[in-house]
Amino acid sequence: PYIEGEVEAVRVNIVGCFETGPGHWISAVDRTPYHTEFVRSRLTPELRRDIRLLKGFLIGSGLYGAEIRVEGISGYLSELLVIGHAGFTKLLRSVAGWRPPVYIELNGSIGRAEALKQFPNAPLILPDPVDPARNVAAAVSTTKLAEFILASKLFIRSPSVSFFKPPEVVMAEEGDRELLGVFFKVAELPPDILWGEIKHTMRGVARRLEKEGFQVYRAGAAQSGNEVLLLYELAGLTLPRYELRMGPPVWMENALDFIEKTLSRGERAAGPWVEGERLYALLRREDTEADRLLRRWIEAGQVAVSHGLKEELRRAEILTSRSGLFERIKENKDFREFLYSLLDGVSPPIRHLGRRS
Amino acid sequence: PYIEGEVEAVRVNIVGCFETGPGHWISAVDRTPYHTEFVRSRLTPELRRDIRLLKGFLIGSGLYGAEIRVEGISGYLSELLVIGHAGFTKLLRSVAGWRPPVYIELNGSIGRAEALKQFPNAPLILPDPVDPARNVAAAVSTTKLAEFILASKLFIRSPSVSFFKPPEVVMAEEGDRELLGVFFKVAELPPDILWGEIKHTMRGVARRLEKEGFQVYRAGAAQSGNEVLLLYELAGLTLPRYELRMGPPVWMENALDFIEKTLSRGERAAGPWVEGERLYALLRREDTEADRLLRRWIEAGQVAVSHGLKEELRRAEILTSRSGLFERIKENKDFREFLYSLLDGVSPPIRHLGRRS
């Protein structure tokens, strides 16, 4: 619910809100004028500069933004962090020593124990001075918080302007890495809704792959126009030809059933045999390739995907690094950069290290 | 310490022992005359016949013998089991309902709770009537006990003379199963000492393979003259080309060390990156083949092998189903039968099932 326009090449959003008193919020953005007021009341010229420094620092490591796609640090959180720590350098010194879960007292403190109880599972807690029932850092993921801690440690040990430059895309070698890519089209949706569904689906596919025996080293998602790419790096793109099936202990009622069923299975390769107190058998797998298996699971509805992407995923294109994945993205800059950055795999804060030398 | 000879094609052992009173044993076999006396005092013509039946039944499922190679049921234990259960059929009905750990009261019972305390980890406990401090079933492994339970269940549901015939070797197809074989020569040693070392070494190799990322489906050992074969069926004979290395959480002191060391490693393929609160990196493996890796670990002393087999193992021949394992054992009947029975993988008690039809 906002208007977007451009003023002299700067993109401007106009977001309407209700004029309410604190605590009587009607829409999600009604707090904003109070946020502005709070921040303004605490600002000094030095703090203004330091907030700009922090925001540059966060952009430089891909940590800026509370969107679901980023799961990073919002503008308001940046401002409160600098105000709360009385400056950029002091903040970074503090962050370098953080260990999650982190609780930050600003004003009207509720105490660490109370905060951990009120905001369970949040890696970073900073109660909103305008509304203490709300955690300003609710959107920050553990990974992004950890990258912030790491960036601070690296910067303090060896400060450099490179930390304020957005990470470059490093062209990594394709090599013989085992990648699985799922391409699908998406409808136009507000980014946070779409990215909530993308991330949920990304994890669902990873969980299914792992459950069936694939080892998932990394997972990532990228968007290019109305197309999404889920990318997985696996230990291998094929499962072993044979699968060990564990049966019941011999003293169970159903031990003889397991034996009879197994002996009559066409895919039985060996067994049943006894090891310890249990029965085991070796079955031959019909399909062993990740792309074929994933397509089958999606068609059978055996992957926990977001409801909104179900149909899109059924029509997905599934490619591997052996079947033409690199060829498919050759012409798409967004996907290519995303793929290269996953192949390179160096966290943005760490990438600044190399650039210094 | 015994004399072996042959009398009309029957192998005869003469074992000397000391004449002592119960409880004043000097050598391990001093109990034997008392065992004989105890068993004789309880025998009836029916029990004699039933003991022969049980021994035939156990031989028919490869469960007879307390040697370390077999880890099964000794002659004396067979006799006590039949006497204690007043016959073969009653015994098998009882065994079919067993669930380990099993405690059998004969005479001078010590009670179940006391027995479990006195013989911890023993799947089957039958205190020696001649010496209650000794478990007659000490040599029985969980696997063999479970096979005994299974054989009893199968026999009771559908009795057949086939259960009294030793299991035949089934010629299994070689197929594309992933096998690793370790051949080595051994010196002449008492079988129980040698087989203690063989089993210890067999497990040591399996543990090392698993620790490094191989999935071991089955392991077995066979002897042919002065040669031993350790055989492993694996999910795959190669490890993934890349290895995920987990680093410390970012808030640990050594997080920056991990980053610097990883960045300087020649085998670094990707990373370090942050996932959750931890650092990770992807390293390229130099060797990925099971046989090459195992040879290297043995040479580096990184496999927990029996001391007595250390030198033999250094000179071992390591072959896989891809590198000539089948060719190597083609001429050796013992190894061939052992390999086929592992490929077939059907427990002897279960093998009787198929034979009936």
What features would you describe in this structure?
Two copies of one chain form a homodimer. Chain A is α+β, with helices and mostly antiparallel strands and 357 residues long. Chain A has three domains: 31-164, CCA tRNA nucleotidyltransferase, domain 2 (Poly(a)-polymerase, middle domain); 179-238 and 288-356, Poly(A) polymerase predicted RNA binding domain (Alpha-Beta Plaits); 242-284, Alpha-Beta Plaits. Helices cover 39% and strands 21% of the residues of chain A. The first copy, chain A, contains 13 helices and 13 strands. Chain A has helices at 32-42, 45-60, 75-84, 88-95, 112-118, 142-157, 191-211, 255-263, 290-299, 310-314, 325-329, 333-344, 348-356, and strands at residues 2-7, 10-15, 102-103, 124-125, 127-128, 131-135, 179-185, 216-224, 227-234, 242-249, 268-275, 278-284, 317-320. Chain A has a four-stranded antiparallel sheet, sandwiched between helices. Chain A has a three-stranded antiparallel sheet with strand order 10-12-11, covered by helices on one side. Chain A has a two-stranded antiparallel sheet with strand order 1-2. In chain A, strand 3 (102-103), helix 5 and strand 4 form a beta-alpha-beta unit. In chain A, helix 2 (45-60) packs across helix 3 and helix 6 (142-157) runs parallel beside helix 13. Chain A is elongated. Chain A starts with a strand and ends with a helix. The mean pLDDT of chain A is 91. Chains A and B meet through helix 6, strand 10, helix 8, strand 11 and strand 12 of A and helix 6, strand 10, helix 8, strand 11 and strand 12 of B.
